[in-house]
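Q: What structure does this chain adopt?
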Amino acid sequence: MDGVLTDSEPLICRAATEMFRERGLTVCAEDFRPFVGTGENRYIGGVAEKYGLALDIPTAKRRTYEIYLKLVEEGIDAFPGAVRLVSECRKSGLLLAVASSADRIKIEANLRKIGLPWGGWDTVVTAENVRNTKPAPDIFLAAASNLGVKPEDCCVVEDAPNGVAAAKAAGMRCLAVAQTFPPALLTAADLVRTSLVEVSVADLVDTRLRHK
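A:
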């Protein structure tokens, strides 16, 4: 979801930065980069560890989401090509899942705001549904199980190295879109596109998918 369907990463970064500021710590966007795609527990906790700040993660995350939800109402948009690709996948008869390391409160807000609401997906898997978040494969394996399909019959669309690693660990094909990270950091994916605008249904169902 984050970084694939919508450019919400800058907003959660702003929210977490403000949360840390309230606790007397000044952080910057680059501090969060290694933890993109791993879920808010690690996203916040990793930065706290970097600076040696003792932090109650549930409390800090709750405050971060309070700030984030206000920012979402100011406006986030679907990435160009996102709504079109979802529609074409649906018309082609593909099963569609959102598998995100984010919590439900964030996923629901984002999907509603960009016009691809929760109920429009065959399954949605959140951080609360699994023991381990990305780069562990748990979220993607749970999505495949919910859909009743084999991992090798799935194709994951990802934007972050942690997500690509999770997809490959799950035994799934992976198409990466360089909307958050440069292509050079996504080479573990089977195929890299610059954006969703360049992604077709054929890309997703091609079992010969290879990086190029």
